[in-house]
Inverse folding.
């Protein structure tokens, strides 16, 4: 072996040994951190720790998703049915990596500034039930440059500006999470009661008025007047005059 090459080989082995040593001692990233997240995040919770997510845009567009024991997800409100796992994963990923583009510290009594960011009447509310605690996110107005949305975590004295794209993902419609979005609840048939109709032809649906009696001879036996005519009373029967009282004897 060339004596001049020996020191070079020894140095290379030493360098490789040091690289292997430090790579083994490098701490693993904290649990729940997203690999693609390059900045601070609003929620410090991992996807696998999220057990239930409720999304509310308005009264008619709110729903709740829940994790099952086998790892699947179901819709539990407004209906109970299996949910699209792909759509749920997108939702959980958006929550886990929700970026904090700007952080604004607020004093506890600064209600006017809280109103300024549109958080008193939020456009979107998302509640995450995790293993350790619950988190409720509220989303308000757009930032002045239109590139972000103000949001806050209830119970914290901070307001964040987060990504518009992230808020769009969180605002997905309920139909996104249904396996069969075209399915609609079956219409309920009108309730009928077992009550014969006066004409003898079947039952009468509940809530409908009873049909009027069929025309016929009145109970009194009189012949009814034709439609549109005005009945005039006939002459009164004559009375026999009373006998004059007899004179006293």
């Amino acid at each position: 072996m060339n004596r001049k090459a020996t020191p070079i080989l020894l140095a290379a082995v030493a360098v490789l040994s040091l690289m292997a040593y430090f790579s083994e001692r490098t701490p693993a990233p904290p649990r729940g951190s997203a690999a693609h997240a390059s900045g601070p995040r609003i929620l410090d919770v991992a996807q696998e720790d999220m057990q239930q997510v409720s999304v509310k845009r308005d009264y008619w567009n709110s729903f709740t998703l829940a994790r099952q024991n086998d790892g699947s997800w179901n819709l539990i409100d407004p209906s109970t049915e299996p949910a699209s796992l792909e759509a749920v994963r997108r939702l959980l990923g958006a929550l886990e990596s929700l970026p904090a583009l700007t952080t604004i510290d607020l004093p506890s009594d600064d209600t006017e500034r809280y109103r300024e960011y549109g958080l008193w009447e939020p456009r979107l509310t998302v509640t995450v039930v995790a293993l350790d605690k619950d988190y409720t996110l509220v989303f308000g107005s757009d930032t002045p440059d239109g590139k972000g949305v103000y949001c806050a975590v209830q119970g914290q004295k901070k307001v964040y500006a987060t990504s518009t794209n992230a808020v769009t993902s969180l605002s997905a419609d309920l139909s996104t999470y249904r396996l069969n979005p075209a399915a609609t609840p079956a219409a309920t048939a009108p309730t009928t009661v077992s009550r014969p109709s006066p004409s003898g032809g079947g039952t009468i649906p509940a809530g409908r008025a009873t049909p009027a009696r069929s025309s016929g001879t009145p109970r009194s036996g009189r012949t009814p007047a034709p439609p549109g005519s005005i009945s005039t009373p006939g002459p009164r029967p004559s009375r026999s005059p009373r006998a004059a009282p007899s004179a006293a004897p």
Q: What stands out?
A: Confidence is low (pLDDT under 50) at residues 25-37, 185-199, 202-233, 244-249. The first helix runs from residue 5 to 25. The chain has four helices and eleven strands.
